[in-house]
Amino acid sequence: MSESPVTIASILIFLLLLTFFIGIGIFARRALQRRVLKRFKVDSGTSYTLSRITQYMIITIGVLVSFNFVGINLSSLTVIFGLLSVGIGFGLQNITSNFISGLIILFERPISVGDRVMVNQIEGDVIEINIRATMVRTVNNIVIIVPNSDFVSKDVINYSHGDSTYRLDINVGVSYGSDLDNVLKALQEVADNNSSVMRNPQSEVHIIEFGDSSWNMQLRVWIPDVKQYPKIRNELESGDCTHVQKIWR
Fold first, then answer.
1. Which residues span the domain enclosing 34?
2. Looking at the structure, do residues 99 and 31 belong to the same domain, yes or no?
3. Is 50 helix (H, G, I), strand (E, B) or coil?
4. What DSSP string runs through 154-200?
5. 153 φ, ψ to 5°?
6. Would you call 135 helix, strand, or coil by DSSP?
7. What percent of the chain has pLDDT over 90?
8. In this predicted model, what pLDDT tens digit does every residue of 219-249 receive, in sequence order?
9. Degrees (nearest 5) of the Cα angle 9, 15, 17?
10. What's 200's domain CATH number?
11. I need a surface site. Which of 60, 112, 133, 196 has the fewest CB within 10 A?
């Protein structure tokens, strides 16, 4: 510990320095993400990770500089961390777990900003990854704050990881008295006539099972963006697929 006395003035300067470095960190993150990395055409996920890490590094340096200003050197901080470890043992495990999980997410990138994910039965798009929690905007435009530990310790579906294409399955039941060849042809036309459906891979129609009173069939189509699947599913189910189902029931 330094022998420099801690005064009200030094405490105020300490707080001003801390606030300054936090502000610099936020400014650097925004400038790096919106200007610098954007010029190099870095993808949004990588850009977000690099800018966040830069912000945390600046804040960490600011904390160390601020502590040194009031006379607390690095060796003295080990005592503080030792006391914090005792507090962690008495009830801060959850906060620590989320903090470490946030670092894992930023460095390993199992999820990135913009990804469509399913966690805790919640489906939505990742809009922000913070050091404690991640914000997910659901398909109903509701923002859910999910603890980072949930993305590390639980099963998470990432629809967008590495590839945004998605296979959409539409189930259709037709009666046994229907002309099966016409049904297969009509379902294939449903896919071919929808501009949102990819031509490669090609759409397929399969008989899944023989039900009690119908052939249970499935139209499998590929779409380029998984985030569009609710809209395209609705188009297929409420449009031509429903029409086919009514004709051959």
1. 8-107
2. yes
3. helix
4. S--EETTSS---EEEEEEEEEETTS-HHHHHHHHHHHHHT-TTS-SS
5. -100, -15
6. strand
7. 24
8. 999 999 998 988 898 888 775 555 555 554 4
9. 100
10. 3.30.70.100
11. 60
